[in-house]
Specification:
Layout lengths: L1 H24 L3 H5 L9 H23 L7 H24 L7 H8 L3 H10 L11 E6 L1 H5 L3 H9 L1 H9 L2 E3 L4 H4 L4 E3 L5 E7 L2 E4 L2 E10 L2 E6 L8
Parallel strand pairs: 1-7
Antiparallel strand pairs: 1-2, 3-4, 4-5, 5-6, 6-7
Helix pairs in contact: 1-3, 1-4, 3-4, 6-9
């Protein structure tokens, strides 16, 4: 029983720390440990999340079934700590969220994951376009996604405004296409004029070879679907 209590305690600490970091800094510790990007899951991460949840249920069960007997201080402290972290995380997230939705550009900037995309949109002169009423749907590559693109390719795009604009507009679809609509499509025409392929595998959605890691980030003039790769239009 002592070993089980210690294991539950460790998992609760990991879970509390992970969700505290997610709420405060949008950093998923478990995803980082198992080699995923924020918002992604695989079999191993699901097992970890499941064990954390079972540990919480187990610890709470100890409290409920104690019936007046002395409860182990470590277990009680961890349960209270986990609840406190959840409450703090929720509070921080709520206070950090804007009271009104910003535009696609403003919403993307607020997440802190799209510095490269924002820089390239500025270079291509597309910031004002994505500030318009739209609505638009943007498949937005994170900074991590841009790091997968060879530096030579990025430098070439930076020097050719027309090509850069074509690549960026290949990530934009006219209209507000939420996830519930995306999964029903096999392709979508982008503002670039070319089409992107859409396929659903198990619970994952892919746009060309890019995986949607977080769908339906709502903005005042459309919706953002976060993807883990940069989309390159056909030559």
């Amino acid at each position: 029983m002592k070993v089980l209590n210690k294991l539950a305690a460790i998992l609760l600490i990991v879970g509390g720390l992970n969700w505290g970091l997610v709420a405060i800094a949008e950093f998923d510790l478990v995803a980082e440990i198992v080699g995923l990007e924020f918002g992604e899951t695989n079999a191993l991460s699901r097992i970890i999340y499941g064990l954390v949840g079972l540990s919480a249920i187990y610890a709470i069960g100890l409290l409920v079934t104690s019936r007046g007997r002395a409860v182990q201080p470590m277990t009680a402290a961890l349960v209270v700590g986990a609840i406190a972290l959840t409450a703090i995380g929720t509070s921080v997230t709520a206070s950090a969220s804007p009271r009104t939705q910003g535009t696609i550009v403003e919403t993307a900037a607020a997440t802190g994951q799209f510095k490269t995309l924002a820089k390239l949109l500025t270079s291509a002169g597309l910031v004002d376009t994505l500030q318009k009423p739209g609505p638009y749907t943007v498949f937005a590559p994170t900074d991590a996604a841009f790091k997968k693109v060879p530096a030579k390719t990025l430098n070439a795009l930076a020097k050719d405004k027309a090509k850069l604009k074509a690549v960026l507009l290949y990530h934009v679809v006219a209209g507000k296409v939420t996830a519930s609509k995306v999964v029903k499509l096999s392709s979508a025409k982008t503002v670039n004029g070319e089409r992107v392929r859409i396929r659903v595998t198990s619970s994952n959605v892919f746009v060309n070879n890019a995986k949607v890691t977080k769908p339906d980030v709502m903005a005042s003039n459309g919706v953002i679907h976060i993807v883990n790769r940069v989309l390159i239009p056909p030559a």
